[in-house]
From TrEMBL:
<protein>
    <submittedName>
        <fullName>Mechanosensitive ion channel protein</fullName>
    </submittedName>
</protein>
<keyword id="KW-0472">Membrane</keyword>
<feature type="transmembrane region" description="Helical">
    <location>
        <begin position="26"/>
        <end position="47"/>
    </location>
</feature>
<dbReference type="InterPro" id="IPR023408">
    <property type="entry name" value="MscS_beta-dom_sf"/>
</dbReference>
<dbReference type="Pfam" id="PF00924">
    <property type="entry name" value="MS_channel_2nd"/>
</dbReference>
<keyword id="KW-0812">Transmembrane</keyword>
<dbReference type="InterPro" id="IPR049278">
    <property type="entry name" value="MS_channel_C"/>
</dbReference>
<feature type="domain" description="Mechanosensitive ion channel MscS C-terminal">
    <location>
        <begin position="181"/>
        <end position="254"/>
    </location>
</feature>
<dbReference type="InterPro" id="IPR010920">
    <property type="entry name" value="LSM_dom_sf"/>
</dbReference>
<dbReference type="InterPro" id="IPR008910">
    <property type="entry name" value="MSC_TM_helix"/>
</dbReference>
<keyword id="KW-1003">Cell membrane</keyword>
<dbReference type="Pfam" id="PF05552">
    <property type="entry name" value="MS_channel_1st_1"/>
</dbReference>
<dbReference type="Pfam" id="PF21082">
    <property type="entry name" value="MS_channel_3rd"/>
</dbReference>
<dbReference type="GO" id="GO:0005886">
    <property type="term" value="C:plasma membrane"/>
</dbReference>
<dbReference type="InterPro" id="IPR011014">
    <property type="entry name" value="MscS_channel_TM-2"/>
</dbReference>
<comment type="similarity">
    <text>Belongs to the MscS (TC 1.A.23) family.</text>
</comment>
<feature type="domain" description="Mechanosensitive ion channel MscS">
    <location>
        <begin position="108"/>
        <end position="173"/>
    </location>
</feature>
Length: 271
């Protein structure tokens, strides 16, 4: 028991002496870290407000302001360490280990590089509709590592940036296109049917008028003339609007008196 008390007493004396000898350094290091943390946050918010007022893309604004904050925080940490040790060996060590670290984290680095290209070149921005890797959705967030999209069902799709910049992707901005075909008999009036389908598409509330719906003869099938239609609709209501369009087109063709033929197959039996 006496031995344990003696060890605790010696430890307390050592800590007390250390605080006495290095109290000023500890206080100044804490002050530098606190000042750096406050200054980096304040400057980031200031830059973000200034860039938003100038109409800069929100993703690029967040990236620039975030980089500025990270640089200030790193400088504050280095200054705090310099209060106790010389940072020259630390800088040399970081430089020597950078090459090996790069090889170990090639995947994340490639994502960051692709993310940086997306932020700088801006082939798409938040709010655009993106189709890539068989997935589609509205872009909700762009970071250095990944891009997040959300589809009509509320599903959040996260795609690493290297799988976007290295692939062919489609940016249809805020909308997607609805394409469909309905067949009428060869005896029906094609012009009347096309006009009816066009009015039906234009009558749907969510169908955009710029660009306007397109309707025309899509193909000449074996037993029908296929009327094709194309409409741009908001991504957020893509499937719901597509169902409305198909129903309106079907009703319009019936109302205009056109016949919707069944597939027919003529079989000749030779005796």
């Amino acid at each position: 028991m006496d031995e344990e008390i003696k060890q605790v007493s010696e430890s307390a004396q050592y800590v007390t002496q250390f605080l006495i000898d290095n109290g000023a350094k500890i206080f100044s290091a804490i002050f530098v870290l606190a000042l750096g943390y406050w200054l980096s946050g304040w400057l980031r918010n200031l830059l973000l407000r200034m860039m938003e007022k100038k109409g800069m893309d929100i993703t690029l604004a967040k990236f620039v302001s975030g980089c500025v904050r990270l640089i200030i925080l790193m400088m504050a940490v280095l200054f705090a360490i310099a209060k106790f040790y010389s940072i020259s060996p630390l800088v040399a060590l970081l430089g020597a280990s950078a090459f090996g670290l790069t090889l170990a984290i090639q995947g994340p680095i490639s994502n960051y590089g692709a993310g940086l290209m997306i932020i700088i070149t801006r082939p798409f921005v938040v709010g655009n509709t993106l189709t890539v890797q068989g997935q589609y959705g509205q872009v909700k967030e762009i970071t250095l590592a990944y891009t997040q999209m959300e589809n009509e069902d509320g599903e959040v799709i996260t795609i690493p940036n290297k799988h976007i910049m290295g692939e062919i992707f489609i940016n249809s901005h805020e909308c997607r296109i609805v394409e469909g075909v309905i067949g009428i008999s060869y005896a029906s009036d094609a012009d009347t049917s096309i006009e009816a389908v066009l009015k039906a598409c234009q009558g749907i509330e969510d169908v955009t008028q710029d660009p306007p719906p397109q309707v025309g003869i899509d193909a000449f099938a074996d037993s029908s003339v296929n009327i094709g239609y194309r409409c741009w609709v908001p991504t957020k209501t893509f499937h719901a609007t597509r169902f409305k369009i198909n129903r309106a087109v079907y009703q319009a063709v019936q109302d205009c008196g056109a016949d919707i033929p069944f597939p027919q197959l003529d079989v000749t039996v030779k005796k």
